[in-house]
Design a protein that fits this description.
This protein has 417 residues and is mainly alpha-helical. The protein has three domains: 189 residues, no CATH class; 74 residues; 130 residues, no CATH class. It is globular and about 70 Å long.
């Protein structure tokens, strides 16, 4: 694993302590230098600090980030000047190609080429794929979608193009959310970067430290602690001449893998939100207790990685669904969204299968619930019943069970390869 300022590292704690001291005591409007110059230098610090943070992983990563920032800012400015519908479509297409193209080259090119070669091999055609073997920039799956949302919003006129280059660059590179989200939109975030608070509210400070501690507990004390168990079940027991034969161990490993999948991500997000609160900036919720509060599978995915699923909903699902609202089209679109979500998580067949199977499971539940509700209405009964105490337990258990079953597709090395 490459080095860098990982949120659960001592190096990050030292970086954050120094950064907060500079942010509030030195460069802010009440800081030693900021007050002397009568300028708030914290936006500059946020930008420089974010690039230093990203460079700690690999020195050339910031070049990719800067390129994405320049392209999306320029296209946003051009969209603001252009009234021609056709030209606006061309500009949007350029934005999508530049951003998604970057993601594809670094993360998916080798996988796609390998998949084509495997397919040709199965029909007797030999192929020697020319792979790139590029190092995947950390967080590229996040900040490409993050930046692209700005261009799409400007194209739709859901947001105005900004002329504030500094604040926009901070919006794209903001280090608390750079590696693992949550994904944000330009409208709620840009004003926060342009009008930073002069002082940190004590309540917000306490909330920030609380979130950081919660995130560290989720990430280190739970998710990382489950690694030996999941490794035993999915690596040590599934490779070699004798696959695992203990079904109880497999079930325990599957649930442990599901918990690890959720809490590793949720922990990182909570540390990000806590760090941001200490800077006086609010980031959106990304997890709302999906493992313990979900009523069913649909509700689970309203609570898990909320900002990513919201991104796919607003920028992929709804635009495609407007062309037709048929049940078949809606069902296929939902499965497609989960397929994209799986591919977004990882460039391998395990994640692809995970996305498809999860999408089919969610859509099946939707269709079953609709049929049940129609039947209840025909009988003159309310379509939905109040949630019983038993369902408060069974609902989360059912949703977690489905997640555990599907996560095996990702964890088992013979499938995920």
């Amino acid at each position: 694993m490459p080095g860098g300022l990982l949120f659960n590292s001592v190096e990050y704690a030292a970086f954050l302590a120094i950064f907060l001291a500079l942010y509030w005591a030195v460069l802010g409007p009440r800081g030693a230098i900021g007050s002397a110059l009568k300028r708030d230098l914290r936006p500059h610090l946020l930008l420089v600090g974010s690039y230093v943070f990203y460079a700690s992983f690999t020195w050339w990563f910031p070049a990719i980030l800067a390129g994405i920032t320049v392209v999306q800012y320029t296209l946003g400015a051009q969209l603001a000047k252009t009234r021609s519908r056709e030209r606006r479509k061309v500009l949007l297409t350029l934005g999508v190609l530049a951003t998604i193209g970057t993601l594809v080259v670094f993360k998916y090119f080798d996988f796609f080429v390998g998949a084509v070669a495997d397919g040709l091999g199965r029909v007797g055609l030999e192929a020697n794929p020319a792979t790139l073997g590029l190092l995947v920039p950390w967080g590229v799956s996040f900040y490409t979608l993050h930046a692209l949302s700005y261009t799409i919003d400007v194209y739709r006129r859901d947001a105005e193009a900004t002329t504030d280059v500094l604040s926009f660059a901070v919006f794209v590179a903001y280090f608390p959310q750079l590696l693992a989200g949550p994904l944000t939109r330009i409208r709620p975030m840009l004003p926060q970067f342009q009008h930073l608070p002069r002082r940190l509210d004590p309540i917000r400070r306490a909330e920030g430290f609380e979130l950081i501690l919660l995130g560290l507990f989720q990430k280190v004390a739970v998710a990382d602690a489950l690694t030996p168990l999941t490794r035993t079940v999915f690596v040590d027991q599934t490779v070699g001449p004798e696959p695992a034969q203990n079904p109880v161990l497999l079930v325990i490993g599957a649930f442990a893998g599901a918990a690890q999948f959720v809490l590793d991500f949720a922990g990182y997000t909570n540390i990000a939100r806590g760090t941001s609160k200490l800077l006086g900036i609010e980031l959106p919720y990304n997890f709302r207790e999906p493992l313990t509060r979900s009523r069913n599978l649909q509700d689970y995915w309203r609570r898990h990685n909320i900002t990513l699923m919201g991104w796919f909903r607003d920028y992929v699902y709804r635009p495609l669904r407007r062309r037709s609202s048929s049940t078949v089209r809606s069902s296929l679109l939902l499965v497609f969204i989960f397929f994209l979500s799986g591919l977004w998580h990882g460039a391998n067949w395990g994640w692809v299968l995970w996305g498809i199977v999860t999408g089919v499971a969610v859509q099946t539940e939707i269709l079953v619930n609709r049929a049940r509700d129609r039947s209840r209405r025909r009988e003159g009964r309310p379509a939905r019943r109040r949630r019983s105490p038993a369902m408060r337990v069974l609902g989360p258990l059912y949703a977690s069970g489905v997640l555990a079953a599907t996560i095996v597709l990702v964890r088992a090395p013979t499938i995920a390869a």
